[in-house]
Description:
Blueprint: E1 6-9, H1 13-24, E2 29-32, E3 44-47, E4 52-55, E5 61-62, H2 66-75, E6 89-93, E7 98-102, H3 125-130, H4 143-146, H5 152-166, H6 175-184, E8 195-196, H7 202-216, E9 220-222, E10 229-233, E11 236-241, E12 246-248, E13 254-257, H8 261-267, E14 277-285, E15 296-300, E16 306-309, E17 314-318, H9 329-344, E18 353-363, H10 367-371, E19 383-385, H11 398-414
Parallel strand pairs: 1-2, 1-13, 2-9, 6-15, 13-19
Antiparallel strand pairs: 3-4, 5-8, 6-7, 10-11, 11-12, 14-17, 14-18, 15-16, 16-17
Amino acid sequence: MTNGTVHIVGAGxxxxxxxxxxxxxxxxxxxxxxxxxxxxxxxxxxxSALGMTIDNGNHLLLSGNASALAFLDKIGGRHLLDEPQHxxxxxxxxxxxxxxxxxxxxxxxxxxxxxxxxxxxxTSALDYMRLxxxxxxxxxxxxxxxxxxxxxxxxxxMEPVLLAALNCDLKEGSAQLAAAVVRETxxxxxxxxxxLFAANGLGPAxxxxxxxxxxxxxxxxxxxxxxxxxxxxxxxxxALKFADDTVPLSPDDKLILAVPAWxxxxxxxxxxxxxxxxxxxxxxxxxxxxxxxxxxxxxxNATTEWLFAFENRLSVTVSSADRFNxxxxxxxxxxxxxxxxxxxxxxxxxxxxQIVKERRATFAATPDQNAVRPRAETRWKNVxxxxxxxxxxxxxxxxxxxxxxxxxxxxxxxx
Length: 415
């Protein structure tokens, strides 16, 4: 095994995960980031319209996300997450004004489905047993081809949960990817699906400590340092071209591309990557959270899908939100604020607000797009891929991004 420099292009979670894994093993690491900040689509920033620091998107970690939690433990950020002792998911139906709490038991044997006080109202244990059909899905099947979409348990549990996980309509969403999410969380019992809440944002917990860790281990994270092109010679990458410099790669150097799929394809045109994407809309309101409001609430029969209650703001996430890409911002904000007011029992005018639309938030988690996700290995001996769009076996999630970075780092160390 050789010990050249590992160059990582991209300081999102996949690139930081690779950098932490490599730096932790004493490897020389340089992370090249086009932006002036790390974190990619999982970052915190000061939003002047609100007068406070927010996450650019509301991201949820679960206690079954083993790679993400190991990453947090390594960089020292896990203490910044609130971890409930037991799993509990609050839901609200805007049409009926009904609320309920889903309470899976801790162990892997799901006896909770036999308790009407723990499951979705007007559902039976048999409804949950039928959801097991999802686990045997083939690569070409969609979610609604495996489980019935005209049931209460689908509308009031599976649709909001899996829509958030896949970020695409479940009529087109990969049943195999949905099954992987269920298998790693709810399928392992309540202890694996406790929601972890970053009260101060994911940037301070996941991103900033990772940058610090890499630096403390002798690595570098270079901001404002975007790679413009890569020089190739047969089966190897031989140089990185920047705006005002070209950095040659020695025979011992390795390269990890941890950039979005469309950027990776620009840098390495021969790559086959997902080409379809889905957007996510996040709406933020500068309003203190009512004490009675749960930290996370799933919402059905509304534009709002998930409501996050922070100390000084209320934030909403809407997945598969392409329908809002051209919508006027203020009417959308007013509609969402009216829904929040009904859910939380608030009687107040709409406060300061901001809507953040991420048009290419994730690849489209359809069977066809899942099939073209590349593995971390490439045809070039010294080049590896990382990103939630690579073949992680999961949809585009924080867990998948971190896992992909670890995989690329192991391959780079072994090459």
